[in-house]
Amino acid sequence: MTDLVTYVELAGAAAGAGGLGYAKARAPRVYWSLVGMPVTWGRFTWNYNSTMDVCGLTVQPSGFRAFVKRNVARSEVRPVPPKIRRVRPTSTGLRITLRLPAGLEPADIAASTERLRHAFGVRSVTVMETKPGYVELRMTGWDVLNRVKLPRKARPRDLVVPVALREDGTVFERDYRKVPHALTLGANQSGKSMYQRNLIKGLAQLPVALVGIDCKRGVEQNRYASRLSALVTSPDDAGKLIDALVMEMEERFDLLALYGVSDLWELPDQVRPVPLVVLVDEIAELFFVTSKKDEPARDKTVMQLVRLGQMARAVGIYLEVCGQRFGSDLGRGATALRAQLTGRVVHRVNDKQTADMGLGDIAPDAVTAVTTIAPDRPGIAVAGDTTGGWSRIRTPEITPDEAAATCREFAHLVPELPFLAPFRPVGQITVPPMPTTPPMVRPRPVTD
Ligand SMILES: Nc1ncnc2c1ncn2[C@@H]1O[C@H](COP(=O)(O)OP(=O)(O)OP(=O)(O)O)[C@@H](O)[C@H]1O
């Protein structure tokens, strides 16, 4: 009987360990909730004071406080770390709110994140200032960018599209009203199209007009034709479409003047024109010319794009530009246009110079982070913003068919815009299925 109990206990323990091992690999959220979080929380509570001390994140309390609290001389009181105000577990890690003592600033904590990460045995630690005197330590228990799944509540709304996950487990959103124009850069096979795909899938569900410029003969955007109000696939047509957009911008400004407002969102609902998102795939194609006689047309197109970048935000026209490189070597107007595209997402690039082009002017620290993206992790990117902050992000992996299906489902949201009628996509090109085996060559009968 005792033997039987021992066997049952052993089998139970083995099954439990196997289950946890499986959960660690296949369901990291479950593993984190059952094992990782309690262990990390305990470790954090137990080691907090000593860790902050060795990381140099403590300060000597003031003489008055030392006297009031302990009635001893200041020099005899041990230095104190930031006070823990709140510990909040999440499905990906721990959020800890700290009250900074006088003498410490958020940058001091941010400079020690690598040391804290190792001390508390977590995947990553990032620091956010929540209000003056308070910071939030965001600890991630496992590599949330390994297999990305956005939380169910992350849904597109009011020109805000959840596109990716940050390494601290929060959702990276593309908010067109906060950051009207953006640039996505990356080498071949770095994940640019996947990023655009996620973006289009989200945008398709919103009441906006989508305009596609894909000078790679429409290979990327043609599949989204059902939800596009316009699609052009050659630099000549792109020039005409961009002219039409500039004219629309001017008409919208006239409307703003008529109502005495300075922004599309201040207009009454019944007269407010629909917001437009212009998706430019492979921007370099708009800059390249093969002969001198094409240069004036190219210069005009670029200049018109720069005008859109400078002014169109106020009238609800937003630019979403994508490319492999975007520097002054592209030609006249390139840096002026890039300066308008303040949202930056840079995937793996082939050289530091390209990383610099993407993030050097807005978040210099992020350039090093881009150069360390491993080639075997496509989709990882560094997203910067104009505040100088940046984060590592990755989009969920979705197929082109999934994004195209969403476009078809929301095709009824394509708004009626007569000025885009000449550029309306003619419909999707149906690609014949590839034969799985090469066609058989029948031997021809030999005739004399
Ligand atoms: N977020 C991601 N998660 C997992 N795999 C990804 C992710 N993003 C991209 N990939 C994979 O990486 C490969 C290249 O992705 P993608 O086509 O988006 O790159 P790209 O930069 O657009 O390449 P190109 O410039 O050559 O068209 C694809 O096989 C894709 O499945």
UniProtKB/TrEMBL annotation:
SUPFAM superfamilies: P-loop containing nucleoside triphosphate hydrolases. GO terms for molecular function: ATP binding; DNA binding. ATP binds at residues 186-193. Gene3D superfamilies: P-loop containing nucleotide triphosphate hydrolases. Keywords: ATP-binding, Nucleotide-binding. It holds the Pfam family FtsK_SpoIIIE. InterPro entries: FtsK/SpoIIIE/SftA, FtsK_dom, P-loop_NTPase. Residues 167-356 form the FtsK domain. PANTHER family: DNA TRANSLOCASE FTSK, SPORULATION PROTEIN RELATED. This is Plasmid transfer protein.
